[in-house]
UniProtKB/TrEMBL annotation:
Protein name per the record: Ethanolamine utilization protein
Species of provenance: Clostridium punense
Top-rank taxon, per record: Bacteria
Length: 239
């Protein structure tokens, strides 16, 4: 057996066990639950915090239960590679494999509008190549994926009828999220309990309009996180 065959065999075994776990693991609470398809360390504190403030239990890929336990599944971030794989039903990672299972089971899937990373390259990418990812975005929409902002997610995840208004501008979406933050007095994110602060974490916080984080003096801020903070003017306050 060569190396490629061995890798393929191991991958198939892992995916088989994952699907068995998703279909057999029992729900351990009667409270409403939401699954965010990210590792626990990469969860956006603003998104997960808002869900918890609205009385939802939040799970990540690391501790997910049977898919039947969840009111909705959330795609927090979608990289260009993930978008292509999700649109074409390719399960190259646990996240992509779970998404495929979710769609086949007819569960609600919400994708955060600001998490579509390909949109950040609209001014630099080749037009035809950029439009290719637009078609992938539309494919997910045709599969039943609903693109939402934070406020929309909180109001729609209970199962109310969702109506897409194509004429709603990005400015309106930004204003709604700003109003939500002001109402809930979200001025900074407290990361003092975290030992390691990564670039991904700061990027998720900044996407939600917050540019101030509190960290412990003992916390380790990675060099990439420091570079991102400097470029994006995210204020890191050690306590």
């Amino acid at each position: 057996m060569n190396k490629e065959e061995l890798v393929e065999l191991i991958t198939k075994e892992v995916m088989a066990r994952l699907k068995e776990m998703l279909s057999s693991k029992e729900c351990f609470t009667d409270k409403k639950k939401v699954l965010i398809l990210e590792k626990a360390e990469d969860l956006c504190p603003v998104l997960s915090g808002a869900l918890r403030d609205n009385n939802y239990l939040v799970d990540s890929i690391d501790n997910m239960e049977a898919l039947e336990c969840y009111e909705g599944i959330v795609l927090q971030n979608i990289s260009p590679k993930e978008l292509a794989n999700l649109a074409n039903g390719i399960g190259g990672s646990v996240k992509e494999t779970v998404f495929t299972d979710v769609i086949l089971r007819g569960k609600k899937v919400f994708a955060m509008k600001k998490g579509l990373e390909y949109q950040n390259f609209g001014t630099t990418a080749n037009k035809q190549f950029f439009n290719l990812f637009k078609t992938y975005e539309e494919k997910l929409k045709s599969y039943g994926v609903v693109y939402v902002g934070l406020k929309e997610l909180l109001s729609e995840i209970d199962g109310a009828k969702y109506e897409v208004e194509e004429k709603v501008s990005k400015l309106k979406d930004n204003m709604e999220e700003k109003a939500y933050r002001e109402t809930n007095e979200v001025e900074f994110v407290d990361l003092t309990k975290k030992k390691l602060i990564s670039e991904v974490e700061l990027r998720n916080i900044y996407k939600n309009g917050i540019n101030k984080v509190l960290v412990s003096k003992k916390s380790i801020v990675t060099p990439l996180a420091m570079d991102y903070a400097r470029v994006s003017k995210v204020q890191i306050i050690k306590q």
